[in-house]
């Protein structure tokens, strides 16, 4: 790997990192705005135009609060908890393909932090690690409510990861690749996976709600039962990191959903747009502009799913814990297995028939 | 007896498959919330937009002058007696020769102070006043104070300004708006108070 390539990768990673942080920051603002609008209110609108400086004000408040560590808490792990949560949340964005390629002086630059051939596996590994942040923090607090919240989060994440992985297998059977770049490239144009995997998508999105600890599966921080859940003892920016990690996770899972099921940067008519742009502006500028449009489409999809997360949050009440476990183990996992069988049968028998009929 | 037509009979029947699928119910709920998302917001953004509170709202005090610009207060002290919060204090003085254009009666209030922290804006002073001198304005609040010496309002703040007289002629929202417009254009909004009995 030569130096330019290394620098280009570093710059890409940095841009992805900053973008993730900014989107997560403004998700907190958007969450409150959406909550307000859905409840017939205005939401925050005092700090800056339309409340746009609200995240900065919140962060400033968080930083200047007392950084409190309970006397009987395990100090190292108490600090490690939010750090781990933040770290694992940020790691996952490295493999997401944000667009196709940039062409500069004949060099192709992939708009993706790391083009890994096991991208989706990497995402799953990192997301699975995320539960450590919560578990470690909850345990280190030396507080029964925190521990209960953390255990809830851990068992919930582990239960729903099974169904999530199974729903994903159907996608992988169709794409026969674990690389996210490859999976997106296969959904060229309007050939999105959602049309082949509606049931898989439903399972996947339900599980990602549970993975992000979002309503209706936000039992780890169920105030009525657990005070504040796993972050009861946290304050100041350590609490901020936990909340922030949740929003980063939300963005990551929205991006993953749009990559896996909604074609990432692909949109209908992209070939026509591409040929028009390259015809008018040359193969370099035209290509770059086409890529930018694709990236904008990708972010549009991802932001829509962030909105969808919030929309659901302010619509549905919280599940009870036994209902949560019943749904995960008794409904979603059998459904996901059923989906795998259907997909396998379709790939094996239906696909040759249809291709033969089309030819 | 039926009290409402929105009540539903509770039943513990088995849910149908459609109900157990949960997805249609979620879709219905999402449809309701998105309708609210785009609905007109009911919020009145207070410091920028002020709602008309009606002609009987009791805001800050004012010491009225009569149509010739003479103070109507005669420092009888009935308002201070009526005040349940003991917020009003006054010092009476005798009118000198040549002050007839300043004070209406032979006795006047040299000092008239209202403690705005004590005042509960009940309006009993207004009711007690035999000279129709003290009123609680329906269109202005006591502004927020940040210093101790802003709490006790003396005559400099209380006595009516003859160029911008207080009237309670606006009884509806529309009349209030029209009056505001008149005031803004510098027009005198004088109204003759009732004759003193």
Automatic annotation (TrEMBL), chain B:
Subunit structure: NDH-1 is composed of 14 different subunits. Subunits NuoA, H, J, K, L, M, N constitute the membrane sector of the complex.
Keywords: 4Fe-4S, Cell membrane, Iron, Iron-sulfur, Membrane, Metal-binding, NAD, Quinone, Repeat, Translocase, Ubiquinone
Protein purpose: NDH-1 shuttles electrons from NADH, via FMN and iron-sulfur (Fe-S) centers, to quinones in the respiratory chain. The immediate electron acceptor for the enzyme in this species is believed to be ubiquinone. Couples the redox reaction to proton translocation (for every two electrons transferred, four hydrogen ions are translocated across the cytoplasmic membrane), and thus conserves the redox energy in a proton gradient.
Name recorded for this polypeptide: NADH-quinone oxidoreductase subunit I
Protein family membership: Belongs to the complex I 23 kDa subunit family.
Cofactor remark: Binds 2 [4Fe-4S] clusters per subunit.
Source organism superkingdom: Bacteria
Residue positions binding [4Fe-4S] cluster 2: 83, 119, 122, 125
Domain 4Fe-4S ferredoxin-type: 63-93, 110-139
Species name: Dyadobacter linearis
Record gene name: ndhI_1
Gene3D superfamilies per the UniProt record, alphabetical: 3.30.70.3270
Residues that hold [4Fe-4S] cluster 1 according to the record: 73, 76, 79, 129
Cofactor: [4Fe-4S] cluster
Enzyme class, broadest EC rank: translocase
Membrane topology: Peripheral membrane protein
Subcellular location field: Cell membrane
EC assignment: 7.1.1.-
InterPro entries listed in its UniProt record: 4Fe4S_Fe-S-bd (IPR017896), 4Fe4S_Fe_S_CS (IPR017900), NADH_quinone_OxRdtase_chainI (IPR010226)
Catalyzed reaction equations: a quinone + NADH + 5 H(+)(in) = a quinol + NAD(+) + 4 H(+)(out)
Presence of keyword Iron: yes
């Amino acid at each position: 790997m030569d130096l330019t390539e290394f620098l280009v990768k570093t710059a890409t990673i940095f841009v992805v990192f900053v973008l993730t942080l900014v989107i997560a920051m403004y998700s907190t603002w958007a969450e409150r705005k959406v909550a307000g609008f859905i409840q017939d209110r205005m939401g925050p609108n005092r700090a800056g135009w339309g409340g746009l400086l609200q995240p900065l004000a919140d962060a400033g408040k968080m930083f200047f609060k007392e950084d409190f560590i309970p006397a009987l808490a395990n100090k190292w792990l108490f600090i490690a908890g939010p750090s781990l949560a933040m770290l694992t949340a940020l790691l996952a964005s490295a493999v997401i393909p944000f667009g196709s390629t940039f062409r500069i002086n004949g060099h192709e630059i992939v708009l993706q932090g790391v083009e890994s051939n096991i991208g989706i596996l990497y995402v799953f590994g990192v997301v699975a690690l995320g539960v450590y942040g919560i578990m470690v923090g909850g345990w280190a607090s030396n507080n029964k409510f925190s521990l209960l919240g953390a255990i809830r989060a851990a068992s919930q994440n582990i239960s729903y990861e099974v169904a999530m992985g199974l729903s994903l297998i159907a996608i992988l059977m169709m794409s026969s690749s674990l690389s996210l770049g490859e999976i997106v490239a296969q959904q060229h144009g309007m050939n999105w996976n959602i049309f082949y995997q509606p049931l898989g998508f439903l399972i996947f999105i339900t599980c990602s709600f549970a993975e992000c600890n979002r309503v209706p599966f936000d039992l780890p921080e169920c105030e009525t039962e657990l005070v504040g859940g796993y972050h009861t003892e946290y304050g100041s920016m350590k609490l901020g990191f936990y909340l922030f990690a949740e929003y980063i996770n939300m963005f990551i899972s929205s991006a993953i959903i749009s990559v896996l099921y909604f074609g990432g940067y692909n949109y209908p008519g992209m070939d026509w747009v591409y040929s028009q742009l390259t015809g008018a502006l040359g193969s370099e500028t035209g290509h770059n502009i086409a890529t930018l449009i694709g990236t904008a489409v990708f972010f549009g999809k991802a932001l829509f799913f962030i909105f969808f997360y919030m929309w659901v949050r302010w619509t549905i009440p919280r599940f009870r814990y036994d209902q949560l476990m019943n749904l995960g183990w008794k409904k979603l996992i059998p459904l996901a297995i059923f989906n795998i069988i259907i997909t396998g049968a379709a790939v094996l028998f239906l696909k040759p028939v249809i291709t033969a009929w089309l030819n | 007896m039926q009290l409402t037509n929105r009540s539903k009979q509770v039943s513990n029947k088995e849910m149908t498959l459609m109900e157990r699928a949960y997805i249609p119910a979620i879709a219905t709920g999402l449809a309701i919330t998105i309708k609210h998302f785009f609905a007109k917001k009911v919020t009145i953004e207070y410091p920028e937009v002020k709602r008309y509170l009606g002609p009987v709202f009791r805001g800050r005090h004012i010491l009225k002058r009569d149509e010739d610009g003479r103070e109507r207060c005669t420092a009888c002290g009935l308002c201070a007696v009526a005040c349940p919060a003991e917020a009003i204090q006054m010092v009476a003085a005798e009118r000198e020769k040549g002050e007839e254009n300043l004070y209406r009666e032979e006795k006047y209030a040299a000092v008239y102070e209202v403690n705005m922290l004590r005042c509960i804006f009940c309006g009993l002073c207004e009711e007690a006043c035999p000279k129709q001198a003290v009123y609680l304005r329906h269109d202005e609040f006591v502004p927020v104070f940040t210093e101790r010496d802003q709490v006790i309002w003396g005559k400099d703040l209380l006595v009516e300004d003859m160029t911008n007289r207080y009237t309670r002629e606006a009884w509806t929202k529309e009349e209030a708006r029209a009056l505001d417009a008149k005031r803004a254009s510098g027009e005198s909004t004088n109204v003759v108070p009732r004759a003193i009995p």
